[in-house]
Write a structure and sequence with these properties.
Elements (H helix, E strand, L loop, with lengths): L7 H13 L2 H8 L3 H15 L4 E3 L4 E3 L1 H26 L7 E6 L4 H15 L4 E6 L2 H9 L5 E6 L6 E16 L20 E4 L4 H10 L2 H6 L1 E4 L2 H9 L4 E5 H5 L8 E5 L6 E9 L5 H16 L1
Parallel strand pairs: 3-4, 3-5, 7-8, 7-9
Antiparallel strand pairs: 1-2, 5-11, 6-9, 6-10, 6-11
Helix pairs in contact: 1-2, 1-3, 1-4, 2-3, 5-11
Pfam family, one: LysR_substrate
Protein name: Hydrogen peroxide-inducible genes activator
InterPro entries: LysR_HTH_N (IPR000847), LysR_subst-bd (IPR005119), WH-like_DNA-bd_sf (IPR036388), WH_DNA-bd_sf (IPR036390)
Length: 301
């Protein structure tokens, strides 16, 4: 076995450089100087006897082997973090740092209600939040950049475990007066595909809404232009069309100050499941299950 092995710090620098594609930005994200990060990557290349990164004035380009080593580095760093987590979890549960990603169609509506009460339940828990779309959040989870993700299922998240929080119904949001007397619930066949506004690609709510409607022509004809639910509601309020929003957004007052009318979607599976997910076999599984149980109880109240 070789006496000289890559250090975790060298691998962290390499991963940061791959993520940011720029020495300066990678150094800033790693809280070191650019020269320190550059020297660390160079030392790693010398140690391995390989060129991992092609450097030019404008471009940082990884070699094919460099990309493969980055993937291996992700796994090594994740295992090292899990080793530290194993030691931490042996103490008092939910009394340390926890990094959680939350998707944008949940974060502004659920967290303001839950976080103050979580702080009372677990005063020593330091919960660091990242708001990002499901695909980005799941990738961060598998790369060890976050510990768990609060998102909506179904979603293809790979090798993870999950704990359900609550069911979140889907509503149809319409301009006031369109139609004059909207029914108590809206069936998918009443939705005008030429007027439907949806979130842009990357937001799983769009896929959940289209799946619940089960009308292929909606996917083909809907306008995918909203970058947030707030943006969509403003467009609906200005008479530009209708959209689909989650019940938690309605309950949180998303429609306040508008003349938008919302009615429950009357369809099979007209809801999404809010869940907490984490990496399979995580040493903090018990903590995540405790956190999910607390969220479930607080949400039920």
């Amino acid at each position: 076995m070789s006496t000289y092995l890559p250090t975790l710090k060298q691998l962290q620098y390499l991963v940061a450089l791959k993520e940011h594609g720029h020495f300066g930005k990678a150094a800033e994200a790693s809280f070191v100087t650019q020269s320190t990060l550059s020297a660390g990557v160079r030392e790693l290349e010398t140690l391995l006897g390989l060129t991992l990164v092609e450097r030019t004035r404008r471009v940082v380009r990884f070699t094919a082997l460099g990309d493969r080593i980055v993937e291996k580095a992700h796994r090594i760093l994740r295992e090292a973090e899990e080793l530290a987590e194993m030691a931490r979890s042996a103490g008092t549960p939910l009394a340390d740092d926890l990094r959680m990603s939350v998707i944008p169609t949940i974060a502004p509506f659920l967290l303001p209600k839950l976080l103050p009460r979580l702080r009372k339940l677990y005063p020593d828990l330091k919960l660091y939040l990242r708001e990002e779309t499901s695909a980005v959040a799941v990738e961060a989870l598998h790369h060890g950049q976050v510990d768990c993700v609060l998102l909506a299922l179904p979603f293809a998240a790979g090798d993870v475990e999950s704990a359900a929080i609550c069911e979140d119904g889907l509503y149809v949001a319409m301009p006031k007066g369109e139609p004059d007397n909207p029914p108590a619930t809206i069936s998918p066949d009443l939705i005008d595909e030429s007027r439907l506004l949806l979130l842009v690609d990357g937001h799983c709510l769009k896929d959940h809404a289209l799946a619940a409607c089960n009308r292929p022509e909606l996917r083909a004809n809907a306008s995918m232009m909203g970058t947030s639910l707030y943006t969509l509601i403003q467009m609906v309020d200005n008479g530009l069309g209708l959209t689909l929003i989650p019940q938690m957004a309605v309950d949180a007052g998303l429609l306040k100050g508008t003349e938008v009318v919302a009615r429950p979607l009357n369809a099979d599976h007209a809801s999404r499941q809010i869940a907490l997910i984490w990496r399979t076999n995580s040493p903090r599984r018990e903590e995540f299950e405790m956190l999910a149980a607390a969220m479930r109880e607080l949400q039920a109240e």
